[in-house]
Amino acid sequence: MAEQSHQIVQKLWNYCNILRDDGLSYGDYVEQLTFLLFLKMADEQTRSPYNREPIIPPKLGWSSLLAKDGDELEIHYRHLLETLGKEKGMLGYLLLNLENTSEGSKIRLSASTRGESWQDMKN
Fold first, then answer.
1. Distinct helix (H) and strand (E) counts, the chain
2. With a threshold of 0.85, does the pTM exceed it?
C-alpha cells in the first residue's frame, strides 16, 4: 500500500512539474490536474472490473481528449469545460467556473497519461 501511495504522489508531482514549467501558478496547475485526473478516473470507472455507468457524457469524457491533438484538442477542451459547467447537479456546480489556463500543457499531460491507470496503479 505504501508503494502505491508513493507511485501516486510521484506521478502527480511529475505532472505538476509539466504544468509549472509551462508557467502556470500553483493554484492553476492544481485545478487543471485535478480536473484531468477526475476525467481519467471517471473513465476508468466505466471499464472492467467496475463497469459503472458514465457520469461524464462520452463525447466530453477522457477518451474524447485522447482522440484529438494540437489546436483541435485546445478547442475541444474549452468546449468540454464550458459544456460540463452547464450540466445540472453536482457535476455542473463543480465545473461551473473552471477555465482552461493550461494552454498547451494539457496536450502533453493527456499524452503522457494515455496508458496510465489511476484506479489500480498497475501501469
1. 6, 0
2. no
